[in-house]
Each structure stands twice: as structure tokens, then as C-alpha cells.
């Protein structure tokens, strides 16, 4: 699969949104690949992991988040499930699961289960589309997750122990 053709299908114009999506997705994908290189013991489908990381935010254009150039109508919290629907329609159900399970440390009913889902979810937390040149530390990331509840922070820190 050529993930770029899917991205270009939904983001046909070379504008700020597409550039931001590509930058963020590449940051997440590179961190995922770094984790796999460091932890060769993890039974990960590396090609799938990279594709899924590149496609995890495919649904953002349908959301209302003007600060990151998204001018849709849906609440931003729904970008994962929206992306899941888009990727299922393209015939990529495994990639769809990653898209819909990467928000926070997992939303109710959409918790990351597979190793690849967990790695993308974890890697995504270090990069904010609203500050695309900043890489958060583990401490900063944990603090940013605290507003969603301590259980998510505990899950993130357990991933940190496993993946870093």
C-alpha cells in the first residue's frame, strides 16, 4: 500500500493542513521505527507500523480545529473514529483500528490492544500538531495527559518503560 496516495486522496491540495499532517505523521512514524530498532524482541510488523503511523490522523480534516488548519464540523475528539471509517472504506481495517485507537491513551471502547496500536498511540503523544517543532519529554507528555485522568498517565508511563 502506498500511504501517500491515501493521504493525497483526502488532502489533494498542498496547503498548511496537508503539510502539518505529513510532518506530524512522519514524526510519529519515525519514533515508532526507532522503538522497533531499539527493541528487536518486539514482534512487530514494521511495514504496517510505519503505514499506520502515517495514516493515524487521516480524519482530522473533517474536524473543527482552526488552530491547526482543520475547518470541518466534527469535534476534534472524533478524528480517530472518522479516520477509522475512511480507512475501512479504503479496505484497510488494521490501519483503521490504529486510527481510531490512538487518541489520548485510548478512548472508551477504542483502547489500543495490539502492539502496533500501542506503539503508535504512545509515539503520537510526544508530538502536538499545534507545536509541530517541539518534541515533548516523557514528563511533559505525562503532565499533558493528566487532565484526562490518572489511569491514562499510568498507561502511558507503563508504555514508556516498555518502549523507551
Question: How far apart are the first and last residues' alpha carbons, in Å?
Answer: 29 Å
Shape designation: globular
Biggest sheet overview: 2 strands, antiparallel
User: SS-based structural class?
Assistant: mainly alpha
Please state roughly what percent of the residues sit in beta strands, choosing from under 5%, 5-15%, 15-25%, 25-35%, 35-45% or over 45%: 5-15%
In the sheet with the most strands, the strands line up as 1-2
Order of helices and strands: HHHEEHHHEEHH
Count of DSSP strands:
4
Radius of gyration: 15 Å
Low-confidence stretches: none
Describe it:
By secondary structure, the protein is mostly helical. It is 56% helix and 7% strand. The protein has eight helices and four strands. The chain has helices spanning 3-10, 16-38, 46-55, 79-89, 93-100, 115-124, 138-145, 150-163, and strands at residues 64-65, 70-71, 127-128, 131-135. The strands form two sheets. A two-stranded antiparallel ribbon has the order 1-2. A two-stranded antiparallel sheet has the order 3-4. Strand 1 and strand 2 form a beta hairpin. Helix 2 packs antiparallel against helix 3 and helix 7 runs antiparallel to helix 8 (150-163). The model has no long low-confidence stretch (mean pLDDT 96).
Amino acid at each position: 500500500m502506498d500511504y501517500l496516495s491515501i493521504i493525497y486522496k483526502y488532502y489533494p491540495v498542498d496547503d498548511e493542513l496537508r503539510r502539518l499532517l505529513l510532518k506530524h505523521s512522519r514524526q510519529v512514524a519515525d519514533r515508532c521505527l526507532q522503538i522497533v530498532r531499539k527493541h528487536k524482541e518486539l514482534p512487530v510488523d514494521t511495514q504496517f507500523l510505519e503505514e499506520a503511523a502515517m495514516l493515524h490522523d487521516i480524519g482530522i480534516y473533517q474536524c473543527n480545529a482552526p488552530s491547526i488548519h482543520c475547518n470541518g464540523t466534527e469535534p476534534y475528539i472524533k478524528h480517530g473514529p472518522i479516520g477509522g471509517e475512511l480507512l475501512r472504506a479504503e479496505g484497510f481495517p488494521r490501519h483503521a483500528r490504529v486510527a481510531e485507537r490512538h487518541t489520548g491513551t485510548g478512548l472508551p471502547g477504542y483502547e489500543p490492544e495490539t502492539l502496533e496500536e500501542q506503539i503508535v498511540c504512545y509515539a503520537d503523544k510526544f508530538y502536538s500538531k499545534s507545536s509541530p517543532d517541539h518534541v515533548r519529554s516523557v514528563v511533559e507528555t505525562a503532565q499533558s495527559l493528566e487532565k484526562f485522568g490518572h489511569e491514562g498517565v499510568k498507561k502511558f508511563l507503563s508504555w514508556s518503560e516498555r518502549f523507551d
